[in-house]
Amino acid sequence: MLKRTLLIENKFSITTKNLQLVLKSESKESTIPIEDIGFLVLDHPETYISIPSLNLLIENNTAIIICNTNHLPNGLFLNLNSHHIQQEIFKNQINASAPLKKQLWQQTIVEKIKNQGELLEKLTDSKNSLSFLASKVLSGDTSNMEGVAAQQYWKQFPQPNLDNDGIKRERYGTYPNNFLNYGYAILRAATARALSGSGLLNTLGIHHKSKYNAFALADDIMEPFRPLIDEKVHQIMGNYKEQELNTAIKAELLQVLTQTVYFKDEKSPLMVALQKTASSLQQCYAGNRKKIKYPKLWNLTDTE
User: Fold this and answer.
1) Burial class of 167 by CB neighbour count within 10 A (0 to 12, 13 to 18, 19+)
2) Pseudo-torsion of CA 188, 60, 70, 213, nearest 10°?
3) Beta bridge partner(s), residue 296
4) Are β-strands 29-33 and 20-24 bridged in parallel, bridged antiparallel, or unpaired?
5) Residue 304 has pLDDT above 60, yes or no
6) Beta strand 48-49 with 13-17: parallel, antiparallel or unpaired?
7) What does residue 275 show for φ and ψ, rounded to 5 degrees?
8) Cα 237 to Cα 67, 92, 280, distances in angstroms
9) DSSP 103-170
10) What's the pLDDT band for 303 if we cut at 50, 70, 90?
11) Mean pLDDT calculated for residue range 69-76
């Protein structure tokens, strides 16, 4: 089921009544069924949200995202009891062998590099070597083809309305890094929500292992989906002169969650596709399948 994403940028009081979320400001009041909400982004320092509202949202597997003073996502609330066989799933994940995790990481990086290459070809209308690099990814990506591909990808990434191509990708870098960072943070939250919904422990990653990272698994699984954010940022750069995040640009980036992606026999909005991917990973841990189910991000033969 496709869920709604709510972005709260003004002073609101958020409470609940009859399983409805009640949003009240000085000038208006509105209600939304809680079961319809997939993501709630709180981006105003004077937002009030009641504990009963938080509990009902979390029980319905809503991801609640808190933004900092720079308007970037800074925290995430997720359901910790979202699956009926939670303990068994945790056990399978914890006991996953090193060879299995290396194979899963290899699959993930192959998909990421292939998607980067496909997007770059779409944007530049020219061939590149990323598909070749994807074919060279080893188990566990021990030769770091991910890094090699990233260097080529960002060096060739076109910037609309600017004379030069290439982006210096930095976590705290200048424009358009601020747009990319916001989009990646939303994608990370959506991935974490899907993984939690499949009963998986976000803290325990396949490849990412920092003891300070509570969402290591989300950081792993989101990798092949990053080019969707890159594509959207490219579109935004061509359509907006602004170089700072504003409401319109944030709304554009949030739309990626409903963008259509393609599996072999079906197509799904991204937020639904992430659930399918998370479920396939859970099955890999349980020994019921060997590959993570990643979608194609674009269908070049689709004319819709």
Assistant:
1) buried
2) -40
3) 262
4) antiparallel
5) no
6) parallel
7) -65, -40
8) 23, 43, 35
9) HHHHHHHHHHHHHHHHHHHHHHSS--SHHHHHHTPPGGGTT-HHHHHHHHHHHH---TTSS-------
10) very low
11) 85
The confidence score (pLDDT) of residue 265 equals: 86
Residue range 69-90: average pLDDT? Answer: 80
Mean pLDDT (the chain) is: 92
- The tokens of 140 are what? 């566990």
Which long-range CB contacts under 8 A does 106-109 form with residues at least 24 apart? 106/137, 106/138, 106/139, 106/140, 106/141, 107/291, 107/292, 107/294, 108/206, 108/207, 108/220, 108/221, 108/223, 108/224, 108/292, 108/294, 109/134, 109/137, 109/141, 109/145, 109/146, 109/223
Residue 174 pLDDT = 82
Q: What is the average per-residue pLDDT within 101-111? A: 98
Kindly tell me the burial class for residue 4, based on how many C-beta atoms sit within 10 Å of its own C-beta (0-12, 13-18, 19 or more).
middle
Q: What is the pLDDT of residues 252-279, one digit of tens each?
A: 999 999 999 999 989 999 999 999 999 9
With CA atoms as reference, report the closest residue to 134 among 121, 115, 151: 115
What percent of the chain stands above pLDDT 70? 95
What gap in Å lies between CA 237 and CA 162, rounded to an integer?
9
Token pair of 78, please?
């997720």
Residue 183: CB atoms within 10 A of its CB come to 25
Instruction: Count CA atoms within 13 Å of residue 163 on its CB side.
Output: 0
3 state DSSP class of 35: helix
58 phi/psi in degrees, rounded to 5 = -65, -40
Exposure class string for 50-76: b at 16+ Cβ within 10 A, else e: eeebbebbbebbbbbbebeeebebeeb
Residue 30 has a pLDDT of 95
pLDDT tens for residues 186-238? Answer: 999 999 999 998 999 999 999 988 776 889 999 999 999 999 999 999 999 99
d(CA 224, CA 254): 18
